[in-house]
Every structure is written in structure tokens, then in C-alpha cells.
Specification:
CATH class of the domain at 303-507 in chain A: Alpha Beta
Number of helices of chain B: 13
Structural class of chain B: mainly alpha
Largest sheet of chain B: none
Strand order of the largest sheet of chain A: 8-9-10-1-11-19-12
CATH topology of the domain at 303-507 in chain A: Dipeptide-binding Protein, domain 3
Structural class of chain A: alpha+beta
Largest sheet of chain A: 7 strands, mixed
Shape of chain B: globular
Strand content of chain B: under 5%
Order of helices and strands of chain B: HHHHHHHHHHHHH
Number of helices of chain A: 15
Mean pLDDT of chain B: 85
Number of strands of chain B: 0
Largest interface: A-B, 67 and 71 residues
Helix content of chain B: over 70%
Number of strands of chain A: 21
Oligomer: heterodimer
Distance between the termini of chain A: 62 Å
Low-confidence stretches of chain A: 9-50
Strand content of chain A: 15-25%
Radius of gyration of chain A: 26 Å
Helix content of chain A: 25-40%
Mean pLDDT of chain A: 86
CATH superfamily of the domain at 303-507 in chain A: Dipeptide-binding Protein, Domain 3
């Protein structure tokens, strides 16, 4: 009996040994093991400043950077790009005529310069010489016209189509290097339309197959799309004939789809990715206080916003008093603490304070007493039930919103649904409250433009409608002078608050992190890995290793 | 023998059709539709929406859509992904190897560990070895995979730096790296499977060991190892094989959590992403492909039964 027992034990031990021996040393490791901490600590990056990776010794050429992105690419066609991953990818491959620089001023990218007629209805764009597509073809005015014709074509599915139809855009070729655009109205935001998140990106016509799908993405950017596996990774390689001499420094970029923030952080820790975005905010907070010696984490802000939307088309929020009750009950600071660990930027408009369009309109401060008064005035009963739509990634918001609104007398029921269902119900105005977010804001017309029922995005502000607002918005897009436009949009924002049309709650904290050997990179003014104005994005990034 | 298998396979055909109907309807019943997801909800006027629906064939009655899809699917054409703009079959073939390797590795890990442990704990009932095996099993069953996975990553990838924390490398590309990448996900997944298998092996072996034929065998003076290996174990393993078969079937459908934690590009994530994107052709195609494989696994399990117990050759 004893020997049998021993036999079993030996067998088990042998098995355990075999299994464990298989693990670490099973094969030689061709990948480099995670790095040992360098002797010196990198400078701490304060969250409020936009950090730049330092470049003391001058850039080195070569190397491939791996970037972990949080969402997959859903379409290669920049004209149809609405999702985050789409913009991440095409930002590196595709360029537009113009783009905002870091201060929000529009500068030329594929257009070297432009002139405007006095009434703002005629725009002449001079194309940059020496720009080549990834297939070797020269960029000509014909290519530009072809893309805009495509955008305006009903079949293309282009996101910008309605916007351009609305301003009556026409595009003509003057000569191979000159394009003339005429518009009937909308001179104010026109450049921002051309610049919006690459949705008017100039790609070569051969990008499209016979069915009108982009199967190979032929842009003019510093990197070209080499190969991809949907849901897994997108491999980009250096475009040797890129128009900016000497750029890019990297031989390639691998965009790796990693959907979970904890997993992205782990991969950054082990050095399996060189750069990443959106890390768990609790960890970000800790890493800002105690930086890791091997990598840098940066929080930065660009025009974006979380927006509390009330449904204007049904009770209780078709009543101004009920909306006012919410506006006074909602405490932005508390919301920021609870949901964003205080890392969000509290303000009452979707622009960062440094932006030219940040307007001097005082924010309504939370006031429980007033909130209760408005609740009374609305004739609502204690425990009035309202439904709030949340996406799964917003579920952290439920507790604090419930706490804030229940003390006024609302009873909030939360429906947590996936993004597609959220959109469907949002559009059908089948909710009382929701929290919307928006990015890619370069002109006040984009966020405030939804405040009229003429906009197809009117549901994004709960179907709000006020003829006075319509009038102001119409003035806003027709005016060219910035100072005059600012006055108009100040009235818009004031009216937003007076009507409790929607509540701009805070600017979202954007997080990027990179290993400390990544140099020459600055986060952009939109979710882009290349600055749209073609400066200091991945095009100037290099690896110091 | 062959007739037995053909009969088993035919019996599964109605199940299979019913499943395609359910999947087809379910994905269309949840709110939200592919046009919105693909083209954004901001600027779609009704005319363009109608045109897009027509181009995707979504304007036709459900019955017509189903019959068209099924007709093509039976000839091997699963349609095109709305999102990835490539044939569904290509997407499946791209993801399938990663899933199969992970499933088999996890299963191998669990079987190699669980069956001996189960036998040990049954033979040495109430000993410390039994206790240890029970502990191992309970932990495997009760620890959530996302937690055990992340703990393993912390220990082996971040602290010790022995193994990579994410990703998949095809074995034909670099077998060594493939092994290094598969260990952590396979152990995470295998551990939770091993728990169940250990417990099941233990209890069914104990049951067999208490039966009359074992007593008779022992009474006839048969050595204990013969009693165990040649008689009791063979019978005891039938439920275990069933369980392993079920586990494999389950794994082929994808191990979404482990795939997420290790950024492992498998079938599970493909299904989940496609559901979120309302990418109907992919959801339908993948589930159909998985169903076919599950049917095959079940047949394989049936075949193993006949090896273990020749009496199971149903007429």
C-alpha cells in the first residue's frame, strides 16, 4: 500500500515538474524581455500641461512603434469614418486640405495657401507642390474635385454630405494645382468642415473597388497601410516619398487592438506596446503621483465634452422648470470626482479654456434649494420616475447621478444598453436623460449646431427647439468675422443655460502613455496620432533605443 | 458503426436549423441596427437610410432575408461583413486557429492535471493529497477568469518578466514564441476547466470503486492497480469524457474573458464585437460555424464512448 501511494505521488510530482518546466524555459526568447528601470527618473508630467517627449540628442531613424488602441477600425474609408478607431488609423495615412494647429488656427496641409473673396463665398486653394499619393501618383486638383464629388454623391455614404449640401458647396478645377470652392453660406465654419477629423481626407480614387468600398487606403500621409487583420492589428510602413522632407523617423507603426484598459496598461508595463491610450483612471491618478520609471502617462485636454441631455419632447423635461431643477441639482465637481477621479476639466461649454471659442458665460452653480423650488414649480411629485440611458462604459455615472437627482425628488431608473441600442433609443427620443460625448470640435457650429430641429443631430440635444436659437445659429454660420461670431455664440450659450437646453458638464480627460524611449511626440488636439497640421505626431516620433 | 454515426449526425440536422432561425431572429430583435452603427446616427436623412438598407438587403421581409442567407450559407457563402468589408468566411478562418490552439492547449493542461489529481484524490480519499486536490479544484472553479488571468500576468509577465502578457503568434511563424504566448491564457482557462474535471473524476471513480464488480475483483485477488486501471477507471472516465467534450464545445464558441485579458484574437471576441456592431452576417456565420464544430465534437465524444465501453453501440 505504501509503495503504491509513493508511486502516485511520484507520478504527480513528475507531472507538475514537466508542466512547470514547460513554462518559462520552453523555448529561447526572441523578444526582448521587459527592460530594467533606467538609473534616472524621467521628469514628472503635470496633468495640466501638454507634455512632449524630450528629444535631447536629435532624432534617430528606424524602428517600429506599437500602439495599443482601444477600439477596432470599422471602416477604411475616411469619408465614412465615425468611430474612434477609424480616425486613429486614417490620421496617420490620410491628409486633408487644411487642419487646425494646436492653438485652433487653421493651417494648410495639402493646400499650401488659400484666398477668400470678401463675402466669404469663393475660396481658392493652392495645392502644395510635390505631394505624392502612396501609389506614386502626384496629387492634382482633379483628385481633390473627385473626392468632393464623391462626398456629395448620395451613394458614397459620406458623413459630411449633408453639411456640404447645406452650404451649397461646389468644387471646380482651375488648373492642376488650383481648386476653387464656392459656397452659398457657412463661411464662418467652412474651414472647420474641411478639417473635421479627416472626413474630407483626400485619398486616391484607386482606393475604391468596383463596389465603392475602400479595400486599399491610398493617402498622402507619412505612413501607408501595409496589411491588417480586423480586430487584431493594423500594420503601417513608412512612406518614403512623404512630402515633408526627412519625415517620418519611424520605419513603421503597428496599431494593436486591445479593448480592455487594464490589459493595455499591463502591456505598456511589460513593454509589449510602446504607446497606448485611455488607461484606467484610478491607475492614471496613481501614476501621476508616483510615476513609473519606465513609462510616462499624460492627461491632456482638447475640445470635447460630456453633455447631460434632457428629452424636450415628453414630460417631465418638456417643462422648463423640470429642466431647471436638474440644472441646479447637478454638481459638476462631484460628478468629476466620482466618475473621472477629478481628472476631467469642469466647465460649461465644450471648449477648453485656451481655445479661441471658449466664451465668457458664467457657469450655473449647483444650488439644491433652487433645484427643489423648480421641482415644486414644475408640479412634480416626490419620486417622479425618469429613465436614463447609459452605455456600459458609463455605468460608473449612475450612482452619483442618482444621488444628485434623488435629493431633489426624482427617481432615476438606469437602462444600460450597448452603443447601438443607445443610438437607436436616443434617436427615437425614448429616454428622459442621457449623457452624450463629442470630440472633433474646431468650430462652435459643430456642438451648438445641434440646437436646432433643422439639424439631423438634434436628437443629440434631446430634440430641443427654440426659434430664437435657430435665428442665432443661422447668424453664427453666416458671419465671417471671429469677434462678431463670438458675440453671437455667447448669446447662444447664454440661451442654452436660460432654457436649460442641455448641460455641458465637463471636458473629458484624455490619457496617453508611452515608454520613456519614445521621443518627439506630443498628443494632438483630437484623438489623432498625427497632428492634423502634420506636426509633432507619430510623424516626428522616434525611438531612443 | 458508420450507420450509428450517420444516424447521430442526421438527428442533429433539425437542431441545427432551429439554431440558425433563432440566431437570425435574435440579433434582429435587439434595438439598434447596422446602418446606424456604420454611418453614425448624426446625419442620416430617410432617403439615404433607405438606400443603405436596400444595398444591405435589409429592406426585404425577414423570411426572404433568411432564406436567401441560408441558401447561400449552405453553399459555403456566408456573406460579407458589413464592417470589415470582407467575406465572413475569411474572418472566421483568420480567427479560428487562435481559438482552436487555445482551446486545445487549455484542455490539454486541464486533462493532464485534472485526471491524475482526480484519481489521486479518489484513491487517497481524505488524505492531505485529496485535500490539496480539492483546494486546487475549488479555486479553479471559483476564481473568476479575469482575476486569475490578471494575477498570472502580474506575476509571470510584469514581476518576473518570464512570459508575454498579451498577443498571439501563429505557430508556423515562430513556434517558440507561440508557446510562450499561449501558456498564460491556456493555464488561466485550463485551470477553471480542471477544477470541474478533477471533481468529476474523483466522484465517479469513488462511485465505481464502491461497486460490486470491484469488490469481486479484489476478492478474486486481482492486484489493486489492475482493479483500478483496467476496471474501475474505464467506467469512471465516461462522465469525465462527456464533460471534456462539453468543455471543448464550449471553448470553440470562444473564451471571451480570457481572450480579452490576453488580447487573444479568437472567435469569442469576434462574436461579441460583431454583436455590438450589429454585423448580422458575421454573427450568423460565426455561430453557424461554431455549431457545426460543436456537432463534430459531439460525434467525436460519441466515438470515444464506444472505445471506453463497447456496449455503447446503439442500434
Amino acid at each position: 500500500m505504501k509503495t503504491k501511494y509513493l508511486k502516485w505521488l511520484t507520478l504527480l510530482v513528475a507531472l507538475v515538474l514537466v508542466v512547470s518546466a514547460c513554462q518559462p524555459a520552453a523555448t529561447p526568447a526572441p523578444t526582448t524581455p521587459p527592460e530594467k528601470p533606467p538609473a534616472t527618473l524621467p521628469p514628472t508630467v503635470p496633468p495640466q500641461e501638454v507634455a512632449t517627449t524630450e528629444a535631447p540628442a536629435g532624432p534617430k531613424y528606424g524602428g517600429v512603434i506599437t500602439f495599443a488602441m482601444k477600439e477596432d477600425v470599422t471602416t477604411l474609408d475616411p469619408l465614412k469614418a465615425i468611430q474612434y478607431g477609424d480616425i486613429r488609423l486614417n490620421g496617420l495615412v490620410v491628409q486633408q486640405l487644411v487642419a487646425p494647429d494646436r492653438s485652433g488656427k487653421f493651417v494648410g496641409v495639402l493646400a499650401e495657401s488659400w484666398e477668400t473673396s470678401a463675402d466669404g463665398k469663393e475660396w481658392i486653394f493652392h495645392l502644395r507642390p510635390g505631394v505624392k499619393f502612396h501609389n506614386g501618383a502626384d496629387l492634382t486638383a482633379d483628385d481633390v474635385k473627385w473626392i468632393f464629388d464623391r462626398i456629395l454623391d448620395e451613394k458614397s455614404g459620406a458623413v459630411m454630405r449633408n453639411t456640404y449640401l447645406n452650404i451649397g458647396l461646389k468644387v471646380e478645377v482651375v488648373d492642376p494645382r488650383t481648386v476653387k470652392m464656392t459656397i452659398e453660406k457657412g463661411a464662418g465654419p467652412f474651414l472647420s468642415y474641411l478639417a473635421l477629423l479627416n472626413r474630407s481626407g483626400i485619398i486616391h480614387r484607386d482606393s475604391y473597388d468596383a463596389e465603392g468600398n475602400v479595400t486599399k487606403l491610398i493617402g498622402t500621409g507619412p505612413f501607408m497601410l501595409d496589411s491588417f487583420k480586423p480586430g487584431e492589428s493594423y500594420t503601417l510602413k513608412r512612406f518614403d516619398q512623404y512630402w515633408k522632407e526627412g519625415e517620418p523617423y519611424l520605419d513603421g507603426v503597428v496599431l494593436k487592438v486591445i479593448t480592455d484598459p487594464v490589459v493595455r496598461l499591463n502591456a505598456l508595463r511589460t513593454g509589449e506596446v510602446d504607446m497606448t491610450e485611455e488607461l484606467p483612471l484610478a491607475d492614471v491618478k496613481r501614476l501621476l503621483d508616483n510615476p513609473d520609471p519606465n513609462f510616462t502617462v499624460v492627461v491632456y485636454y482638447f475640445n470635447s465634452g460630456a453633455r447631460l441631455v434632457m428629452n424636450h419632447t415628453r414630460p417631465p423635461f418638456n417643462d422648463l422648470n423640470a429642466r431647471m431643477a436638474v440644472q441646479y441639482a447637478f454638481d459638476r465637481e462631484a460628478y468629476n470626482e466620482a466618475v473621472y477621479f477629478g481628472l476631467g476639466q469642469v466647465h460649461n461649454q465644450p471648449f477648453v479654456p485656451e481655445d479661441v471659442w471658449y466664451l465668457d458665460v458664467p457657469m450655473i452653480q449647483p444650488d439644491l434649494q433652487k433645484a427643489k423650488e423648480y421641482f415644486q414649480k414644475a408640479g412634480l411629485k416626490e419620486g417622479t420616475e425618469i429613465t436614463m440611458l447609459l452605455m456600459p462604459n458609463q455605468k460608473d455615472a449612475a450612482e452619483i447621478i442618482d444621488a444628485m437627482l434623488s435629493q431633489v425628488g426624482f427617481k432615476v431608473k438606469f437602462d444600460i444598453v450597448d452603443a447601438a441600442a443607445w443610438n437607436a433609443r436616443g434617436k427615437a427620443l425614448d429616454y428622459d436623460l442621457l449623457m452624450g460625448t463629442m470630440t472633433g470640435i474646431f468650430d462652435p457650429d459643430r456642438p451648438y449646431g445641434y440646437l436646432t430641429p433643422k439639424s439631423s443631430g438634434n436628437w443629440l440635444v434631446g430634440g430641443y427647439s427654440n426659434p430664437k436659437m435657430d435665428e442665432l445659429l443661422e447668424q453664427g454660420i453666416s458671419e465671417v468675422d471671429v469677434a462678431k461670431r463670438k458675440e453671437i455664440y455667447k448669446q447662444v450659450l447664454q440661451l442654452v443655460q436660460d432654457d436649460a437646453a442641455t448641460m455641458y458638464v465637463l471636458g473629458l480627460p484624455w490619457v496617453e502613455g508611452w515608454r520613456n524611449y519614445v521621443k518627439g511626440y506630443r498628443p494632438g488636439n483630437a484623438p489623432m496620432l498625427m497632428m492634423m497640421d502634420a506636426s509633432e505626431g507619430l510623424n516626428t516620433t522616434w525611438l531612443d533605443k | 458503426m458508420l450507420r450509428y454515426f450517420i444516424r447521430r449526425a442526421l438527428a442533429l440536422v433539425p437542431v441545427f436549423f432551429l439554431m440558425t432561425v433563432i440566431v437570425f431572429l435574435l440579433i434582429r430583435m435587439i434595438p439598434g441596427d447596422p446602418v446606424d452603427v456604420m454611418y453614425g446616427a448624426e446625419g442620416l436623412d430617410p432617403a439615404r437610410r433607405a438606400a443603405l438598407e436596400r444595398s444591405l438587403g435589409l429592406d426585404q421581409p425577414l423570411v426572404v432575408q433568411y432564406i436567401k442567407w441560408l441558401g447561400r450559407a449552405l453553399t459555403g457563402d456566408l456573406g460579407r461583413s458589413y464592417r470589415a468589408q470582407m467575406p465572413v468566411l475569411d474572418l472566421i478562418l483568420q480567427r479560428l486557429p487562435a481559438t482552436l490552439y487555445l482551446s486545445l492547449a487549455a484542455l490539454l493542461f486541464s486533462v493532464v492535471l485534472a485526471i491524475p489529481l482526480g484519481i489521486l484524490s479518489a484513491v487517497k480519499r481524505n488524505s492531505w493529497a485529496d485535500l490539496g486536490a480539492i483546494g486546487f479544484a475549488i479555486l479553479g472553479i471559483s476564481l473568476p477568469q479575469f482575476w486569475s488571468g490578471i494575477m498570472l500576468v502580474l506575476l509571470f509577465a510584469i514581476v518576473l518578466g518570464w512570459l508575454p502578457s498579451i498577443g498571439y503568434v501563429p505557430p508556423q511563424e515562430n513556434f517558440g514564441r507561440f508557446l510562450r504566448h499561449i501558456i498564460l491564457p491556456a493555464v488561466t482557462l485550463g485551470w477553471s476547466l480542471a477544477g470541474t474535471t478533477t471533481r468529476l473524476t474523483r466522484s465517479s471513480l469513488l462511485e465505481e470503486l464502491g461497486k460490486d464488480y470491484v469488490r469481486t475483483a479484489r476478492g478474486m485477488g486481482l492486484p489493486e492497480h489492475k482493479v483500478l486501471w483496467e476496471h474501475a477507471l474505464r467506467n469512471a472516465l465516461i462522465p469525465t469524457v462527456t464533460m471534456i467534450g462539453l468543455q471543448l464545445a464550449f471553448l470553440i464558441g470562444g473564451a471571451v474573458i480570457v481572450e480579452t485579458v490576453f488580447a487573444w484574437p479568437g472567435i469569442g471576441l469576434l462574436i461579441v464585437d460583431s454583436i455590438f456592431a450589429r454585423d448580422y452576417p458575421v454573427v450568423q456565420g460565426v455561430i453557424m460555424a461554431v455549431a457545426v464544430m460543436v456537432v463534430l465534437v459531439n460525434l467525436l465524444v460519441d466515438f470515444i464512448y464506444t472505445l471506453l465501453d463497447p456496449r455503447i453501440r446503439l442500434e
